[in-house]
Every structure is written in C-alpha cells, then in structure tokens.
Amino acid sequence: MPLAVAREEPISVEDYLAAERVSEIRHEYVGGVVYAMAGASKDHVQIALNIYSFFRGALRGGPCRAFVTDLKVQLKWKGEDVFYYPDVVIGCDRRDTRPELLTYPKLVVEVLSDSTQRLDRWEKRLAYQGIETLQEYLLVAQDRLEATLFRRANNWDPEVFAQLKQKVPLESLGLKLSLTAIYEGVLA
Prior knowledge:
With 188 residues, the chain is an alpha+beta fold. The chain has 4 helices and 13 strands. The chain has helices spanning 13-22, 42-59, 117-129, 179-182, and strands spanning 27-30, 33-36, 65-68, 72-77, 80-84, 88-91, 101-102, 105-112, 136-141, 147-151, 158-161, 167-170, 175-178.
C-alpha cells in the first residue's frame, strides 16, 4: 500500500513501517506525516557510493558497519517519532538489532541537493544531534567541492573543507576521509 504525502489523519509508526516494507518508494516519517523521497542524480549517487565504499573498506573486521541509502534511522525529535533515510550511516551499537533501521548511529552523512539541502542543514541536523550516540554529522555538496562536518565534541560547530587535498578528520572512527575520495568520478 503506497503512502500518500498529504493525509488528514496522522499515520501510526506501526502502519508506516508496515507500508514501507512493501512500498516501491521510500518515505521519511515525521510525527505521523510521511514524505515521499525524490530520486537522486547520478552525482548524488556516486558521491554516496564513494563515501560508503571508503567506510566499508576502512571499517571491515571491526565493530562498526556502514550502510547506504535504504536503511532508516529512527529517532525522537521534539517529542515526535521520526524516521529518516540518510545517504550513508555508520552503526556500531549492539543495541541496534532491527534489520530495517538504526536507532543508535555513530555518524550520519547526507549528500546535499537543491531540493534537500535546507532540510539537511537545519531540521535534520538538529534532529540528528539529539541522538545520544551520534558523534558526527557530515554534509557533502554535490555541485561544488565542499564538505561540512558537525561534531558533538566540538559543540556541533561546523568545520568546512573545500580544497581537494583536504581530509575530513572523523575522530569518532579514527579515520580521515579525503575530498579526493568523496568526489572521485564527479568533480575530482
């Protein structure tokens, strides 16, 4: 049963999750309202896959795992249940036992597009920062060379990286992600 974007009555979490299991379209959920997700551009997908590939290789054999695109993150924001689909998410917490979602991510990455960047920079950033286990939130532009890192240990102040030779220091994982790797096949 596909979910409609506009509904008069809020949909329950249980109904959302049941519908999402059989839906061909992904939907995000915020306080009973569902939002169909738009398709992504080739550059968006390439950047997300580049980042995922870096993490998959770097985290192999350890307690953390990288997931791309189709795994939901569940959280509470302003007292409301929320489910987002980040572009890349890292999970390390043993409490995350459900196969279709993470509740305790360590790092979330969103690739910005014209239609989502306002949501990713403001609403999602604030909502994600409320997750107790989240240590870092990385926003990556797809139309220019720019990655913005928000880190809990730095009071969520943004650090901007905009030179091809720079590396984003992901302290929560002890890794450095180069902009060259992020933009391989896109801008680099």
